[in-house]
Amino acid sequence: MMNSPIPSNDNNGSSSASALNDNHNDSEQSSKDSPFDRYVNTLSPLITKAHHAAQGFLGLNSPPLVFKSPCISHRETRLMERTQGTQSLSGEIYQSANRGNSLGKALGDSRKSNSQQPPSERFIAEKDSDSRNDANTQNYGSLLSIDADSEDIDQAYSADQGVQQSTDAAVSSLNELNRSNKNISKEGNGDKNKESLHLSEDSNKDHQEKTAYGQESKKIEGEKNDIQWDYQDPTKLKSNLVSSVIDKQYCNDPHLQDVQGCEDYNEMVSTSHVSAENISQDGLEATLKHHGIRRRCLQFGEAAKPHVKLDATSNEMKMVKLSEHATSLCPQRGSRDFPLTGPKAGTALHLNSVINVMPTGEAATTGVRLPEGLQGMKSTPLIRLQRMDNVKRSILSSNPDRQTLVDTRNESHEVDSSLSTDAGNSEDFNEPPNPRKKKKKTSVNADSNGCKRCNCKKTKCLKLYCDCFALGIYCTDPCACQGCLNRPEYAETVSETKQQIEARNSNAFAPKIIKPNTDNMEDKNLTTPSSARHKRGCNCKRSKCQKKYCECYQANVGCSSGCRCEGCMNVNGKKEDYAAMERRTLSKERVSNIVETGSNSTFHNKLETVSVKKNHDAFSPITPSLQFSDQGKEAAKSRVISGNYPPCPEFNVSMISSSSNYTRSSENLHSSHALLETNEMLRTALYDSQNNCNNVNMMDQFTPVSHPRSLSGASSFSSGTNEWTNIPQSRLSYGSIRQLHGGSLRWRNSPFTPSTGVGEAHYLECSESDNTPFGIQENETPDILREGSTPMRSVKVNSPTQKRVSPPQRRYHGFGSSSSGGLRSGRKFILKSVPTFPPLSPCVDSKGNDKEDLAQ
DNA sequence: GAGTTTGAAACT
DNA sequence: CAGTTTCAAACTC
């Protein structure tokens, strides 16, 4: 009987499986036949739980905690699970089962805790798993749906079975699998869906039956549980990458090397992979993300409270959205720095904390990786990071050496940031010991994780000297700062300090790098790839803008007319070149304007806009999207690459990510590079969100649908315009980047893609800006935003509108920079966008404002 | 890892 | 606003 089930795994498995179950479950069978009451009495506690325990995503370290924790999440989980459909779960379950067995075996060998489990059963389970491994993946695929019942999951979560669950789950999973095989074989190779359903129906029964197993094998040590959980999570998350990475990790992990399931696991992973794709395709990725996030939060028992709360509360959505990017990226921090619930919620700090979770570097990583996600699985990247983190953590949890754990984390992140390919990641993940890389990056401002970190000694991280503070994020463990006050504990102080600084310089926390979002849906191809510039420009004297001393260079942007650098040799674009470009742009714009002269119609405006963009395009050669380039060395590469890409600015940003392929192949995209940009992006997004919008809005940026601006009210069009144009630009561009992760495609495709119109407008309008090189009114934007988040007001105050009226050509700032001339082009841009999407978004206001301005 | 260089931020 | 000082990152050895 032990033998039979396994070998026959294919289709014969039915008989064998049934036999197997029968043998062990005679009593169970009877129970099965018996009335439901008896059933419940006997098995109830473990029934569903056991099964789901396997999922255990939460507390990697402390299973019990996990279970106990948030009932809150249960609901979500349920929804999520259901939404996801059976496939995802099935894959997970299956893996868990398999894995659990293997792991259990491995662990069990060294531990007697397993003794409780009847040897025969154990053997069977193991055997089963083995056989399964040999079995066809396809079979697994069919099996994937087996455990999909969300109810069970929920129950499992809610259940307080604790540690035992996981073990039980593993066993039960195996049993279940067997059963499922049986069922499948019975039904034949018919429709998978059908099979799935069938299996699902039986799943409950199976669970109950399994319970017997579970009960018997309840006692397994926490570590085992942890491990199971860990690797289950990734599966559950369904990220292809994750699975692969994890798989490798497991295989490589010393603790797990014994596990026989490595290879098997791979297969399983592949299977799950399929399911995951399906899910994502269904547009459920969001859900998945959410789910993943939630779990992640829960994982950290210590810090779990806030997270849980967030998830559970109405803020959940907000948080989730933010956390999607941030949290996932820097999990370790999340626990501590996720004080979203803090009093300052909605303020910069609040967001900061969020971002803190995702250290800037992370963001960079995200940006880079996201593209991949788009290509394949959107949500994957995020999940991947956190899962990896979790996995490693869990694995190492047993390891007393804390340091190791940290290192591991870093490494995993590092890997991600480096965009190591799935294949290439293996090494990285092996690393438990691989301090070199870390150390290597130690000197860098961003740690291997890509997390921004500082080394402040005298400023207590409360001055802009501190990168963390400047980015609006809290310092975290990776920071080597001394006497740091930029921590959640001192949120008040931080806030006050920030206010002071802002009082001095409204733009202090505004994004330094502005990406002219020339990207227009229609005109994407016409836009310049590397239009991003440093707001204030650099002031390099000796570095020639060829070193990171130069902020422009550091941000991978070219110098602009706003720079006061001497002997600029910025590989991303020399100041001189920029000036030339501007000139050209202006001239072309003039021409176009002349052609249009006299026409106020929107249509004309559109044309003009187009022409302007074309002009931009013309510039592109001059200023290739260097952002993309990692560093000076790679700048050349980047340029070349950039040439292949559409010139739109958004694209530039995304390029990082989109270039992921390139990066991978050529190993380029440096995490550091990405970090920088990401940091900026984060900064922008953060800043915008902080100033303009509530937390939700932040995400909204990425999702054009709901717009914060609408909230602000349409009091004044002009103001709206200004607001929109100024801040949003960066926001948009960055937002777009992010969207790449989450499916920015929508955004671009969206009828009213704010990107172009807004971005352009931004430049043009901003042109008035004082010194701002790009005509981006740094000051304006921040002020406005700062003022109250009601940009309109600020706009009024600044009322750049009139100034804007002047045609951009006059000004030297090519992109809309010219304050004087900006108006014209700016107007046009605005108008252009107006027609497309009036009612949908806040943009409308801005647009409307523009109109008014024009009228005026 | 220590020391130097650099340029932004802060200060006057 | 300009000049100076302070600071921390970037860089070099």
From TrEMBL:
Residues 83-101, 395-407 have a biased composition (Polar residues). GO terms for cellular component: nucleus. Residues 450-573 form the CRC domain. Signal peptide: none annotated. It comes from the Eukaryota. Residues 23-36, 123-133, 184-227, 847-856 have a biased composition (Basic and acidic residues). It is found in: Nucleus. InterPro entries: CRC, Tesmin/TSO1-like_CXC, TSO1-like. PROSITE patterns: CRC. Its main location: nucleus. Residues 8-22 have a biased composition (Low complexity). Pfam families: TCR. Residues 1-37, 82-139, 177-227, 393-448, 784-856 are annotated as: Disordered. Keywords: Nucleus. Belongs to the lin-54 family. PANTHER family: OS12G0605300 PROTEIN, PROTEIN TESMIN/TSO1-LIKE CXC 2. This is CRC domain-containing protein. It comes from Flemingia macrophylla.
